[in-house]
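Schema walk-through. Below, the input block comes first and the output block second. Nothing else is stored per chain. Lengths vary across the set, and this one has 346 residues.
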Amino acid sequence: MSRKKSSIVSVFKNQGAFQRTQNISYDSDYFIDFIKQNDLEVLAPYLARNFSLEEIDELTISWWTQEMEDEGFQKDPNWKGETPAFKIKLGENRSLDSILEGLENQTLEVFMGSDEYAMENPTIVFGAFGEGLYDRSFGKKELNSENLSLTNVIPYNEGITCDQVQSTDVVRYHMPNFRILDNTKGWPSGNFITVWVAYGTYNLNASGVPSLGFNVNRLVHEKKINRGDFGWKTDFLAQPILTHWHDSNISIQMIVAYQRNNHVMTQTVTSVSFNPNTGTTTNSQQTVSQGDTMSFGSQTWYRCAEINGGHKIDNGLGLYGGNAIWQFTGRDGRAQFTFEPRLTRL
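--- output ---
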């Protein structure tokens, strides 16, 4: 990707792609040569969602580089992103090769595109994203559905309190719903979410003596949410947070983060566990670190409080699907989610 990124910078810098002035001329021959010589991907965050492809008669073509994004965030950490763009008329043949042939010998007016513009005007963006969903004919690629299947839902038994849970009961802990409230990267990139859980582990050795350990499990790694998609996602994790929340594990800590270039996330996570063999409570800590990542925040949840119905108590943000909506109160609260314990009696 570094080779592609460098070529993008070289071509567009030479042709004034970094000029942020309106109504400048652009020689399309350079753009055509650039696309043909580089294996670029295409993002179209709002194209299929907001427009009927059969009725589009104009298309805005834009381009992105990592250097553009880095420069924007250096100037303003809250920068929403914008990219150079130009508009073209579409004919009956809408393949990319046909569109490029139609640009020959044209002088195009360049302006800056953004989310707001693309929501109202059909727009595609070229760049070395590593996440393109459209091929050279603007047809959607087949998505890998391997991680989209849902787990078997185990009903939560209403009325079962923590002190009524039996030793043979299985308590699974789920995140039924998740959403972001704003885009996490500059235009036109998608949003990539990572989730961890820190928890105590309970094991019996060959003699039946219990021992406690400590795990940090990454539940999902840079899972994509399309740009501008702020709706609730059902079973975003596609698996339980914990397949069995043992009674020795008093609390867990959740971390939710998003991809952000040139930023290293370092987070200390904690889990409180009770050892029934010694009668002692253990507070375990571990540091989680991931490059090109920024944290929405982290928080601790307690087993008995959740089983006793704490997940259904409105904490000020309302309920969704009968469960309380949670949002981190730290530096970046642009994600919301719900939790739910589900108990099955074997």
